[in-house]
Design goal:
Order of helices and strands: HEEEHHEHHEEHEEHEH
Shape: globular
Structural class: alpha/beta
Largest sheet: 9 strands, mixed
Distance between the termini: 43 Å
Number of strands: 9
Strand order of the largest sheet: 1-2-4-3-5-9-6-8-7
Helix content: 25-40%
Number of helices: 8
């Protein structure tokens, strides 16, 4: 696994994966520039074609790289591109999967946390009814907001939104999920099952900074303006989660742990859907 991809190499790898996906009769994929070329924000849409065209598809969204120096999250998402469709196919789930492999290309290229105007892109998504500061916005956040608005208008509600990170401070000693406080009770069981299946990866076991630990590996935060919360708001996402990998660990461990978190969360969601259909 190459963990030093340039942004141009990432585009080439994704293009190759898209060509392979489109050669499969069960899926179709489209990789598209969503921004002026200087921001290089690309989207990837993969959908199932193994059902009738008029069947209702479940909508999923995954993003990475909103902090430009959290490169292992981007690498994990690139690895997931061709794995997740096969997971849905295995369980015969009709789906639309939307990906933003790197939200903050400027930060990725320069190995910096913040975006092109030096703002923290993950604090640039204040929702209308929250206290808003005038200087938090950026071109990147405006581009992403416009894209999410398009998704909701054309595809409706999303069942699951995931945003991948690697945690900033070395004292973050395990993988963890951050969820919105108002979804704790409804979706705690799914995330608990995810964390119970994370062996051999270690989970966060203590409160840190602004994160309040609910159980090992699951936190909530009151921080405003995060992409996770905007995904929940704009896409009407049933479950919106930030997954964090600890930078204290080797890069390959971070990538593989994030991959496992994403795939296990989708599997638990599939299990919950199948259980409901059997009731």
């Amino acid at each position: 696994m190459n963990l030093s991809y340039t942004i141009d190499e990432i585009h080439l790898i994704i293009t190759e994966k898209v060509n392979i996906i489109n050669s499969n009769d069960h899926f179709s994929a489209k990789y598209k520039l969503e921004s002026p070329i200087e921001y290089q924000i690309y989207s990837l849409h993969i959908q199932s074609t193994y059902h009738e065209n008029d069947i209702k598809r479940y909508n999923f969204f995954i993003s990475a790289g909103i902090h430009g120096n959290e490169k292992t999250a981007v690498h994990a998402l690139v690895e997931l591109i061709d794995q997740i469709p096969l997971l849905f196919k295995q369980y015969n789930i009709p789906f639309n999967l939307f990906l933003i492999p790197c939200c903050n290309v400027h930060g990725y290229i320069h190995n910096k946390r913040n975006c092109s105007n030096s703002n923290d892109l993950n604090r640039s998504f204040i929702i209308n009814n929250e206290e808003e500061e005038e200087d938090i916005h950026s071109e990147e956040s405006n581009i992403l907001k416009k894209y999410l608005q398009y998704l909701y208008l054309h595809y409706g509600n999303f069942v699951l939104s995931l945003d991948l990170h690697s945690s900033l401070y070395v004292q973050y000693n395990g993988f963890f999920a951050i969820i919105a406080k108002d979804t704790i009770h409804k979706y705690m069981n799914i995330l608990s099952q995810v964390m119970n299946n994370m062996h051999p990866y270690k989970l966060l076991k203590e409160n840190i900074s602004v994160y309040h630990l609910l159980q090992h590996g699951i936190c909530y935060t009151n921080t405003l303006g995060t992409f996770k919360d905007y995904l929940k708001y704009m896409l009407h996402s049933n479950l919106s989660v930030t997954f964090e990998a600890p930078r204290l660990y080797e890069k390959e461990v971070q990538v593989n742990g994030l991959i496992m978190l994403c795939k296990t969360t989708i599997l638990q969601w599939i299990k919950s859907v199948n259980n409901k259909s059997e009731e």
